[in-house]
Amino acid sequence: MSLSTLARSLLAATLLSGTAFLPVHAQTTPQPPPEPDGSPASAVDPRIGTGGAGHTYPGATVPFGMIQLSPDTAMTDFHHAYAWAAGYQYDDPTILGFSHTHFSGAGHSDLGDVLVMPIAGDVRLEPGDAAVPESGYRSRFRHATEVETPGYYAVTLDDYKIRAELSASRRVGWHRYTFPRGKPAHLLLDLRPSIYDYPGKILWARLHVAADGTVSGCRTTRGWAPGRTLCFAMRFSKPMTERTLYNRETKVAYRGFSGPGNHPVDHEAQNGRELEGVFDFGRLKEPLLVKTSISPVSEENAVANLDSEGEGWDFNAQRNKALGAWNKALSVIDMQGNAEQRTQFYTALYHVMLAPTLSMDANGDFTGPDYQRHRADGFEFYSTWSMWDVYRAQQPLLAILRPDMSSHFIRSLIASQQTSPFGLLPVWAYQGLETWCMIGYHAVPVIADAYLAGVRGFDAEAALKGMIRSATYGPYGDLTDYMKIGYVPIDKESEGASKTLEYAYDDWALARMARAMGKTDVARTFEKRSDNWRKVWDPETRFMRARTSSGAFHTPFTPAAAAYGSDYTEGNAWQYSWYVPQNIPGLIKVMGGREKFTSRIDELFDTKVDPAIFKNVEDISGLIGWYAHGNEPDHHVAYLYDYAGAPWKTQQRLTQIMQTQYALRPDGLAGNDDLGQMSAWYLFTAMGFYPVAPASQEYAIGRPFVSRATMHLGNGHDFTVTADNLDDAHPYVGQMTLNGRPLIIPFLHQQDVLAGGELHFVMQAQPPS
After folding, report:
1. How many CA atoms lie within 13 A of 268 on its CB side?
2. H or E segment at 544?
3. How many alpha carbons fall within 13 Å on the CB side of residue 403?
4. Which N-terminal residues, if any, form the signal peptide (predicted)?
């Protein structure tokens, strides 16, 4: 996702080479990462995106899992939290601790729940200053001691000489901490404001130690999703020798000791807004293992999740299970190429499969947008929906690769709509709760695209009802005026130009599904609304512009101007004037025909632009002229040349984008990965085609960047892309065949992909004459 209240920037960083470990003063010698073995998971580098504005995390998770167990690093203050939206920045020198929930590539800072820090020796209760690590419990670390592989993360905490290892299952985070000999071992649990938080964010928290040593609790915050509650349960492989529960707000501490049989004598609990726990284990001769489950519903459910999914203490077995889950998930595409290509490709696919995340307990309970407990019947409930981003490519890719998961996702969207106080589909939701961030009702094209791609297993009638409700609820984003006069007036609602354009596309997607279901009247209504983009087209300036209630275009007008709360959403007129994916021929016509259209796109890419013009809207990143690949509204633009009869220009621009906006470095993403959208764009483009208008059942063909990739589709068919003469000297498509037959036009019907077969390219040095 991208946020219109936060910043984007592409920072310079370099990836330190090598992953060999330095000596650690502990009982066990750290093991190096496994050598690449040809499996998809061995090609993944989770460091990509952890620097700059990528906002990805390097820690342990499983595909679409509830747990994202990852390190959190230094931060100056909340007002500069944008760079730490995933908790970790590659350039930071210290680690604050390891928390169990994170966003991948979002533009907002939240989560970071259940922060723990292993400590050897004296315990400090404050995190301290990153510039003076010894002032608190944080620790310095070096990238040379890190290992990041799918489902596993490890690092040495230099100030404590502790080797920390993390893995995950769906609802449980698994830790292994190897302490130095001779020093007391402690684990600190901090439920106070963390790296993502600000004073007053914690509304209430509870911390409890049960008779069997299980530590559990909950935390309720007034953050991005106000009133969000997250509960947890934690167990240790060694008995506690002592523990202290602190309420730092009231200066109250409860201390407990071990009784007979190494079990706590009493049941202890703290309630308040600034809770910490310190659990002591004496001088250990073996590593300490910790397992932590979470629940978005209740403390009891968190304990039950731990009981059902947290059996045993075999950390290596859990690590291998996580790796196996990733290899199975990533094997949906068999891509052949050199080591660098495979790393870029499979890391992108890895990022695509990090969200949405499981948000349902083992017993089927989930929290809905009404903040009530509900029960999923016959499906799994998923949340973490950055709809403004993922409808473009991430969800369309999963709909054909993993229709089984897509079915769960859509049933989750329907469940959210049916439990919403307003009856609306999710806009930007996580852990079941709504944030109302960004614009549009883009759950509509997610559902429509999946339905038209053949995804079933959900109630299409209920889905369509929810889609219509979201598209007709007047108070949302001034849909009242949009339905009445055909556009969102800027004097009543900010970002009116962008909202009008995005509503019109969503209307078209709704109409497509309605027509496929035989709902002709519904289809006609929304097909008519989908033409509302014309209401914000200004033939005089040849830009899309916001209009006032009187019908006049908003003045003053400067195409380059972009500001939060302006006429556009995270963009300007240059970036938004192409957003008519549902009717590109119509856009070409109003722009004056094919030649003028292609010249205008050339101008978009070729204009010299000072990036400082966007210093106050740093979401606009990855600039090539006015084109901003680091943000989503432009993602389809390079493919528009196809519609104007100039596919070689699409091929030129795609080469330019791929060479400048993606790299094998921590800062290798030009902007937020946005829950997999940036990565999904890369994957589609690498395979040679892209869904310019999801729900159209059509792909625009670009050019391939891999010589062979086979998609093992969810319907049991295989679709393979192959390319001859693929190298830097041959960047243009000379010939295309589909299943051996010449393909003349640069478009591919979705049914041709779903039926299986082969799309073959022959590349050449020059554009076709």
Report:
1. 26
2. strand 543-544
3. 18
4. 1-26
Quote the distance between the C-alpha of residue 400 and its chain's center: 19
Total count of residues recorded for the chain = 769
Residue 372: partners with Cβ closer than 8 Å, 6 or more residues away: 419
- Whole-angstrom Cα distance, residue 11 to residue 17? 19
* Helical segments of 563-716, H only: 573-576, 584-590, 594-606, 647-661, 677-687
Name the 3-class secondary structure at 155.
strand
Phi, psi values for residue 452, rounded to 5°: -70, -20
Burial 524-541 (b: 16+ CB within 10 A, else e): ebbbebbbbbbbbbbeee
3 state DSSP class of 215: strand
Q: Which two tokens stand for residue 600?
A: 């205008």
Express each pLDDT in 671-709 by its tens digit.
Answer: 999 999 999 999 999 999 999 999 999 999 999 999 999
600-649 pLDDT per residue, tens: 999 999 999 988 888 777 678 899 999 999 999 999 999 999 999 999 99
* CA 141 to each of CA 94, 188, 538: distance values in angstroms, whole numbers, following the listed order: 6, 18, 55
How many other β-carbons are positioned within 10 Å of the β-carbon of residue 515?
16
Which token pair is 663? 């790299």
Q: Assign a CATH topology to domain 338-663.
A: Glycosyl hydrolase family fold (1.20.1610)
Whether cis (ω within 30° of 0) applies to the bond prior to 611 is no
User: 139: which 2 tokens?
Assistant: 């620790």
Query: How sure is the predictor about 83, in pLDDT bands with cuts at 50, 70 and 90?
Result: confident
Question: pTM of the full predicted structure?
Answer: 0.94
Q: Rounded to an integer, what distance in angstroms lies between the CA atom of residue 473 and that of residue 453?
A: 27
Question: Which tokens belong to 633?
Answer: 């509204």
Fold of 41-329: Beta-galactosidase; Chain A, domain 5 (2.70.98)
Domain boundaries, the chain: 41-329, 338-663
Based on the number of CB atoms within 10 Å of its own CB, is 455 exposed (0-12), middle (13-18) or buried (19 or more)?
A: buried
Question: Within 13 A of 186's CA, how many CA atoms are on the CB side?
Answer: 22
> What distance in Å separates the CA atoms of residue 532 and residue 580, rounded to the nearest whole number?
10
* DSSP classification of residue 132: B
Query: Distance of CA 282 to CAs 117, 241, 345, 375, 486, Å?
Result: 16, 7, 46, 43, 70
Please give the DSSP secondary-structure letter assigned to residue 80: G
